[in-house]
Amino acid sequence: MDAVPDAAIRALTPSQLAFLEHLPKVELHAHLNGSIPLPLLRDLAREYASSPDAATTTSDDILAGVQRLQAGEAFTDIDDIFSVFPAIHALTSTPASLKRATGAVLSHFLDPPTSDSTYGSVASVAYIELRTTPRATPHMSRRVYLETVLDEIEARAPDAAALIVSLDRRMTPDVAQEVLALAVQLRREGRRVVGVDLCGDPRAGDMTAFVGLFRTARAEGLGVTLHIAETSGNSTAESKELLSCEPERLGHATYLDEEAREVVLARRTCIEICLTSNLSCKTVQQLQDHHIRHYLARNHPIAISTDDILPFRTSILGEYALLLAPKPVGLGLTESEVEAVARMGMESRFRNTLS
Ligand code: IMP
Ligand code: ZN
């Protein structure tokens, strides 16, 4: 069976496909290590297998994860997706491999070939805010990690690419504090850091410790986006706590209750919508039930995004195809509705609001 976004692309007429290809789009929610194009991942896995790291640190889980990724398997629930990141991280633990991964992710989004042997039809975005969690590895510090990614981002035009620094819910308070301080410091040094993110396994961590950090980020002029209410297990109290940081954008926001939705609507907080990700993780059962409908009906700002093209086997074109394709494969929006959605993404860039 076709993957969901592939089926939507196939359901488009040639003129609809051309419309989507030419529509100015942005990507505001893409995790670097979830967005590595499969051909590069295969190369990195091959090289890793013969490296000294593989001899000393490879666990069976990492090997199994790499094999599944190499085979181009799709990952189909939330446990599955979080189980694969350690394998990907093993492949991007040196400055050289991280630099290649960042360069390839930027090329995938900003200047892809018109047709890609792995992804089929692809389309470029005009601007990407790429996010990543700085990791300290035996080969680099967190600062070197961020500098390596920033060097690649800053090789692109200032209005084409920028970095969001992710804090992982599983971080200890000390590490989270260090990562926020790095984001602030690098921004003060004039590096292209535009925001911070809260990500990681939505079932992990105590968010109380993070709230102060995100308030500091805002005071420092950084944009704030938070993965929030991603699963039914995320409590109302947690969402309330996260909303108290007054983030400009929210990732997923699938299970916000009525009160939280009212807050979001009143503040015009942009919701980053990742349709295929939510369907793959099974946090949303069917496209026609997706909470995007709630926001579309209220003309509320949303940003259509991919989340992790590697495990979810999607693309920005695929995500837009899900808006435009007729029901039940897509949501059956008109071209002018899709155009308005794309404009909302453009207007929700952190680069818009930051100096
Ligand atoms: P990285 O930050 O570049 O290493 O990208 C991978 C990381 O992004 C993972 O380890 C997760 O913490 C985070 N991530 C990717 N997808 C999701 C998601 O759907 N929800 C929450 N976190 C995610
Ligand atoms: Zn995400």
Automatic annotation (TrEMBL):
Pfam families: A_deaminase. GO terms for molecular function: adenosine deaminase activity; metal ion binding. Belongs to the metallo-dependent hydrolases superfamily. Adenosine and AMP deaminases family. Gene3D superfamilies: Metal-dependent hydrolases (3.20.20.140). The keyword Metal-binding applies. One of its GO terms (biological process) is inosine biosynthetic process. It comes from the Eukaryota. It catalyses: N(6)-methyl-AMP + H2O + H(+) = IMP + methylamine. The keyword rRNA-binding does not apply. This is Adenosine deaminase-like protein. Residues 24-350 form the Adenosine deaminase domain. Its cofactor is Zn(2+). Keywords: Hydrolase, Metal-binding, Nucleotide metabolism, Zinc.
